[in-house]
Design brief:
The complex is a heterodimer of chains A (248) and B (313).
Chain A: E1 2-7, E2 9-11, E3 33-35, H1 37-51, E4 57-64, H2 68-78, E5 82-87, H3 94-108, E6 112-116, H4 127-135, E7 139-149, E8 152-159, E9 162-169, E10 173-176, H5 188-194, E11 199-203, H6 204-207, E12 215-221, E13 230-232, H7 235-245
Parallel strand pairs in A: 1-4, 1-6, 4-5, 5-11, 6-10, 7-10
Antiparallel strand pairs in A: 2-3, 7-8, 8-9
Chain B: E1 2-6, H1 16-26, E2 31-38, H2 42-49, E3 54-61, H3 63-66, H4 70-81, E4 86-90, H5 93-106, E5 110-114, E6 116-119, E7 122-127, E8 132-138, E9 143-147, E10 163-166, E11 174-181, E12 194-198, H6 205-219, E13 222-225, H7 227-231, E14 252-256, H8 262-268, E15 273-278, E16 291-294, H9 297-310
Parallel strand pairs in B: 1-2, 1-4, 2-3, 3-10, 4-9, 5-9, 12-13, 12-14, 14-15, 15-16
Antiparallel strand pairs in B: 6-7, 7-8
Helix pairs in contact in B: 4-5
The chains are: A alpha/beta (248), B alpha/beta (313).
Chain lengths: 248, 313
């Protein structure tokens, strides 16, 4: 089975985010960029499926600037087989991303799409669900366990209040939650090998998808800062302060 | 302009997030209907009918809806979408699961996890784990919005809206197998007035239970955990407070052995009073705490239990 894994290049999750003074966005100049952590988990899961003999080929897809090629290379070094880069300097919204991915999927015809549940920049948590809706494929989001057997997948989902198990027909769109696995570090030989793997370059125009934004960003601001309070010396002191504050 | 609010419920109980989403909806329109998706959820619909400002309650019933299968939920909403200019959903794991599907089918941009309604087409939402706030204006005629419940006050009760039954829906390619819900007598994390959270300093699941749970029970609090503690297996993921877990805003948040990573702060910094107990006086959690106690939790928590007992708690 061919598995398609979309990945996104985002600000590294350890970098302190700074809002630009002109309120037009977040400062991304000279900032370390990495693969979105949830995408990494999805890549890892695809590689494990290949190691188990369930997946036969892993296609990594990224939509973004030319540098997103590095993100695809990282995924290829983890075990992806080849890449597709849809280059755009726009920052497409989830709806546009879902449409572009649907177009790539129409060409690639994978048996499964495995992707992160959300990107840590826009925090939309939407593309997987939207892609599933556009394709008419079952959706299985927020997964912490995936078991493929024949033409169905049994997934364990992290839901409000606990866990839920669903059985979905394949092809399906599956999104990874935090506890699905712990992604591997690519070894040096695999990083070298990844350099020779094929990445096909495409443009948005190749797919004829309208990616015009539907949301206009009026401004990006910093949230109100919470100021540090006081240090108390003892637990008894703390309880008396909380009593005074009326929260006990 | 009419607005449809999709109720947050578990077939038995109408969750508080619904009341808060109704508050956001009432900022858009006076014509607010509530849709209850569930199985045997008449009691939930009756509860929704009591929310002040609700015009009518619609109840859709099917097995798949009762199990929160997104395909069925989205179809039930889409069947009604024609009559509404905006569809508002609580930004819970369940709501975030089906709302984007509805948006995709309507060919509109979902507006995720809003924390403020600026006007009928303009909303504020957190991005980058809450490190920035984005004000967006939607050009779509119909809007699909998820609402962060902690950012809105709960709508009052006192209404008596009529309840109508609408048709349920099913999912052809997705089957519910089972669920395993965490059983607890404690209040629900997202709605609790007090939350006691433990971090990686606990060192083990046993220690987490030994230290955090008795304190939570003494305070009548819900139990939370940092992502680091969840990652390390000390606490279930359902306890996770933070950008990738639950966002909470209780009256009192007690962080024990939590350093205060950005992503954790994003999930609790709107709490009214924050207490931090940590032996590292440089821990970032102290920068947001109203009351900080620099101490090893191993001695501080028992002392806190004693002090609470002495204060009659």
């Amino acid at each position: 089975m061919k598995v398609l894994v979309p990945v996104k290049r985002v600000i590294d999750y350890n970098v302190k985010v700074r809002v630009k003074a002109d309120q037009t966005g977040v400062d991304l100049a000279n900032v370390k960029m990495s693969m979105n952590p949830f995408c990494e988990i999805a890549v890892e899961e695809a590689v494990r499926l290949k190691e188990k003999g369930v997946a036969t080929e892993i296609v990594i897809v990224s939509i973004g600037p030319a540098q997103a090629q590095e993100t695809i290379r990282t995924a290829l070094a983890m075990g992806g087989d080849r890449g597709v880069l849809v280059t755009t300097d726009a920052d497409p919204e989830p709806l546009a991303v879902a449409k572009l991915l649907a177009a790539v999927i129409a060409e690639e015809q994978p048996g499964l799409v495995l992707m992160g549940k959300q990107a840590i920049d826009g925090d939309n948590n939407a593309v997987g669900q939207m892609l599933s809706a556009l394709l008419g494929w079952p959706q299985a989001t927020y997964d912490s366990a995936i078991e493929i057997s024949g033409s169905t997948a049994k997934v364990t989902r992290e839901v409000d209040g606990g866990l839920q198990v669903l059985d979905v027909d394949l092809p399906a769109v599956i999104t990874a939650d935090l506890r699905l696995n712990e992604p591997r570090y690519a070894s040096l030989p695999n990083i070298m090998k990844a350099k020779k793997k094929e990445i096909v370059s495409k443009t948005v125009a190749d797919y004829g998808v309208d990616i015009a934004p539907r949301l206009k960003v009026l401004k990006v601001t910093e949230p109100a800062k919470r100021s540090a309070g006081i240090k108390v010396e003892t637990a008894a002191d703390l309880v008396s302060k909380l009593n005074t504050a009326g929260v006990l | 302009m009419a607005v449809l609010v999709v109720a947050d419920n578990d077939n038995l109980v109408l969750r508080d997030g619904t009341h808060k989403t109704v508050t956001a909806a009432l900022k858009l329109s006076g014509d607010v209907d509530v849709l209850v998706l569930g199985h045997g959820a008449k009691a939930v619909a009756d509860a929704a009918a009591k929310i002040s400002g609700v015009r009518k309650v619609l109840l859709a019933d099917s097995d798949a809806l009762g199990h929160g299968v997104a395909e069925a939920q989205a179809d039930a909403i889409l069947a009604l979408a024609g009559g509404y200019d905006a569809i508002l959903v609580s930004a819970t794991a369940g709501g975030k699961n089906f709302a984007p599907r509805v948006a995709a089918k309507l060919d509109v941009a979902p507006i995720s996890e809003i924390v403020e309604v600026v006007s009928g087409d303009t909303f504020v939402r957190p991005i980058y784990a809450g490190n920035a706030l984005e004000t967006v204006q939607s050009s779509d005629a119909k809007k699909v919005i998820t609402v962060r419940p902690t950012a809105f006050a709960a709508a009052e009760e006192g209404g008596s809206a009529p309840v109508e039954t609408v048709s349920g829906s099913d999912a052809a390619k997705t089957r519910f197998v089972s669920e395993e819900m965490v059983k607890s007598d404690r209040p629900e994390l997202a709605a609790a007035k007090i939350v006691v959270s433990g971090g990686r300093a606990m060192g083990s699941a046993e220690e987490f239970q030994r230290v955090i749970e008795p304190l939570a029970d003494k305070l009548g609090a819900a139990v939370g955990a940092s992502r680091a503690a969840v990652d390390a297996g000390y606490a279930p993921n359902d306890y996770q407070v933070g950008q990738t877990g639950k966002v909470v805003a209780p009256a009192l948040y007690v962080a024990i052995g939590i350093s205060g990573a950005i992503q954790h702060l994003a999930g609790m910094k709107d709490s009214k009073i924050i207490v931090a107990i940590n032996k590292d006086s440089d821990a970032p959690i102290f920068q947001v705490a109203d009351f900080g106690l620099v101490a090893d939790y191993k001695t501080a928590v028992p002392e806190l239990m004693d002090a609470l007992a002495a204060a009659g708690k």
